[in-house]
Amino acid sequence: MKRISILINGLVKENPVLVLLLGTCPALAVSTQASNAIGMGAAATFVLLGSNVCISLLRKIIPDKVRIPCYIIFIAGFVTLVQMFVEAFAYPLYQALGIFLPLIVVNCIVLARAEMFANKNTILNSILDAIGMGAGFTLALLVMSTIREILGNGTWYGIEIPVLVNNNIPIFTMAPGGFAVFGILIALVNKVSKGKAIKRKDFGCEGCVSACICKKGGAE
Q1: What is d(CA 17, CA 40) in angstroms, rounded to the nearest whole number?
Q2: pLDDT at 203
Q3: % of the chain with per-residue pLDDT over 90
Q4: Contact 39/93 with Cβ under 8 angstroms?
Q5: CA torsion sign, 14 to 16 to 22 to 28?
Q6: Vertex 27, ends 23 and 33: CA angle to 5°?
Q7: How would DSSP label each residue in 58-114?
Q8: Each residue of 111-168: pLDDT tens digit?
Q9: For 73-106, how does the pLDDT look when each residue is reduced to its tens digit (9 = 90+)?
Q10: Count of alpha carbons within 13 Å of 169, Cβ hemisphere only?
Q11: Contact 191, 40 (CB under 8 A)
């Protein structure tokens, strides 16, 4: 049951975008079309999976003082692989994602799972965590992009929807529309979970991924 909970936590209870509020920049930027959302979600999931496995494997070998730079090296390597693959085999998607594809290197979701989970757990649990968090990230992007594309363009995955295609609301494809949809989805998740999804007992430095490099977090 513990492993099942690790796998499904990222979908709602600890959804990285709608609950933990991580990776909001790419979520808002690429969620104008469903195809972009799925592409970004798949790329981030691959990077999460690869980096979690490597970090879990080497967690007892990597010196504590240099673990963050080591995480970045692993993450950057997998992001480079994804970027080259997408550019070679899905060039329209590569152009659509733009700078946000290489910026997965500094995506808070990937670094947070490396520091808070993979660094402390077994390979199998780290794999499950990566799949769950990646699925949660993809699901959040897909829901946001579906709402924005249908209302903003009158299409879904490029397929025109009768009536809506000629009566769309372009603001939903812009930044204000993205923030509005984002806020509504956060409110819905909070409502459905009755506030339990975002309730935290401790808002101190211990739960922050940057604690290890922050003086307040006890770094020397």
Answers
A1: 13
A2: 42
A3: 51
A4: yes
A5: negative
A6: 160
A7: TTTTS-GGGHHHHHHHHHHHHHHHHHHHHHHH-HHHHHHHGGGTGGGGG-HHHHHHI
A8: 889 988 999 999 999 999 999 999 999 999 999 999 999 999 888 887 888 888 888 8
A9: 999 999 999 999 999 999 999 999 989 999 999 8
A10: 11
A11: no
Which residue type occupies 191? K
Q: Which residues pair with 159 in a beta bridge?
A: 156
With 0-12 / 13-18 / 19 or more C-beta atoms within 10 angstroms meaning exposed / middle / buried, residue 55 is: buried
Give all strands (DSSP E) within the chain, no chain letters. Answer: 155-156, 159-160
Rounded CA separation 172/81 (Å): 33
Cβ proximity of 130 and 49 under 8 Å? yes
Query: Which amino acid is located at 78 in the chain?
Result: F
Which residue type sits at 100? F
> Which amino acid, one-letter code, is at 82?
V
